[in-house]
Design goal:
single chain; 456 residues; mainly beta; Immunoglobulin-like; six-stranded mixed β-sheet; 34 strands; binds calcium ion
């Protein structure tokens, strides 16, 4: 009960009356107002009460200002006035006003005077996101605009907080359009886009305030061009047009792979392959086509003694596309399982199948060779392998065997002429049915022997 003594209560009552008196006589100095730009150094003169009131002066609020009690001048203090901190909620139209209280003598009036904190451009614009992503379909027409939600903020007011936007490094592909007071920032497409040519654009969106010394902020604007199904499959130059396979190829052997491409992406680029309905029954029987990979495989073991050519017309199908087509000619080579013969017609002197030739004779015709066999030898040719002094020149389906220079008995008494059967696309000399025949020429002796072997 110590606070409730009669003396204390009398004291409190007096103070209350005094405050009431002050309140009643309080003067709000509507005509006396001061202003100071924010963020001023300490000790800057803000104004003076001396023109309106008599000394001495006592400032009741001393946070941001101190007052000379004699002159009534008041100054900034160590504690800087930050407009954005003092008036965080102000709007463009409202000023940031701080009311200060002072007691002026001799009457002891409590007066209140406003100090307007003026804005300075001490805040740069700010983007919440340093990267802004926008997706634009590639078939968008020139002139289409897209709203950019990510606008910059500037905590200053007036021109210091008004923002202007521009693009950098857009390459003329995009421009900006700013509309309304809000404002709405629109990205405008300026040239035709093609995802297959360029699927991403990166540029800088710059926001600059309108202060005397403008401040700016930059966000990276990334435009991703999204795919539209505007391309159809086509067969690539690498896709085979003709292949040759041996007549003894095994079932499931990979014959060829057709390759088509579609420059679009994802489902828009999906391709399925199919055989044309016009492909012959024989080809359909022999070959299968994988609709996804384009692999053409044998459906069965081949045992073909005859040359055969089969034409495969293959389609590449894409969504909403007319099919592209290609033709693959598959040549089947016959299996060489027949004994072949080389018929020899001697021109030069011969004894027991052996050519006999005097030494030092100029190039001389020795024999006519002819390949004989069934149709499986069609397309085969005879050649001499290795460096020997003989030539074999084709003559109307036959071959003329000649010496290419004079032979020297002392250097070599017997010559072997290795004659090899060759096919255009497949060499048969390496085992597996390949065959060589060699003749022996003796420059002085008598033995032209005929020998035959199946492999080298
Ligand atoms: Ca400011
Ligand atoms: Ca600013
Ligand atoms: Ca497509
Ligand atoms: Ca496309």
């Amino acid at each position: 009960m110590g606070h409730g003594t009669p003396d204390n209560m009398a004291c409190a009552g007096l103070l209350q009356n005094l405050l009431l008196l002050f309140r009643l006589r309080q003067i709000v100095c509507g005509s006396v107002q001061f202003s100071i730009p924010e963020e001023k150094e300490p000790g800057v003169l803000v104004g003076s009460l001396s023109k309106s009131f008599s000394p001495p002066y006592q400032l009741l609020t001393q946070e941001y200002l101190w007052m000379d009690t004699n002159t009534g001048n008041f100054y900034t203090t160590e504690q800087k006035m930050d407009r954005e901190a003092l008036c965080p909620e102000d709007t463009e139209t409202e000023e940031c006003i701080i009311l200060h209280n002072a007691i002026v003598r001799p009457s002891g009036d409590l007066i209140q005077f406003p100090v307007i904190i003026e804005d300075i451009n001490d805040n740069a614009p700010h983007f919440v996101n340093s990267e802004i992503h926008l997706r634009v379909p590639e078939d968008v027409s020139v002139g289409t605009s897209f709203l950019l939600d990510d606008q910059a903020q500037d905590r200053d007011v007036g021109l210091n907080g008004d923002l202007q936007y521009h693009l950098e490094d857009s390459g003329g592909v995009f421009s900006l359009k700013v509309e309304g007071d809000e404002p709405f920032i629109m990205l405008v497409v300026q040239t035709a886009l093609d995802r297959e040519t360029q699927d991403q654009y990166q540029m800088a969106l710059v926001a600059t305030d309108c202060g005397t010394d403008p401040l700016s902020a930059t966000a990276t604007l990334i435009v991703t061009v999204t795919d539209v199904n505007d391309n159809c499959p086509s067969f690539s130059p690498e896709s085979p047009r003709s292949v040759t396979i041996p007549g003894d190829s095994a079932r499931n052997m990979l014959v060829a792979q057709v390759i088509a491409t579609d420059p679009d992406s994802g489902l828009n680029a999906a391709i399925t392959y199919s055989l044309s309905p016009k492909v012959s029954d024989r080809a359909k029987e022999l070959f299968s086509l994988d609709s996804l990979t384009g692999y053409i495989r044998l459906t069965q073991d081949l045992k073909s003694d005859n040359s055969e050519e089969l034409l495969l017309k293959v389609f590449a199908n894409g969504h909403h596309c007319p099919p592209a087509d290609t033709k693959v000619t598959v040549s089947i080579l016959p299996t060489l399982n027949q004994e072949m013969t080389i018929k020899i017609g001697f021109i030069a002197e011969h004894q027991n199948q052996t050519l006999v030739l005097p030494e030092n004779k100029p190039p001389t015709a020795l024999a006519i060779l002819e390949l004989e066999g069934d149709s499986s030898f069609k397309g085969s040719s005879l050649v001499i392998e290795g460096k020997v002094p003989f030539t074999l020149s084709p003559q109307n389906g036959k071959y003329l065997l000649s010496t290419s220079k004079a032979l020297d008995f002392e250097m070599k008494k017997e010559h072997h002429i290795p004659v090899v059967v060759q096919r255009r696309s497949v060499s048969l000399s390496a085992g597996g049915g390949g065959e060589q025949r060699a003749w022996f020429v003796t420059a002085a002796g008598l033995s032209f022997r005929r020998r035959q072997w199946r492999e080298r």
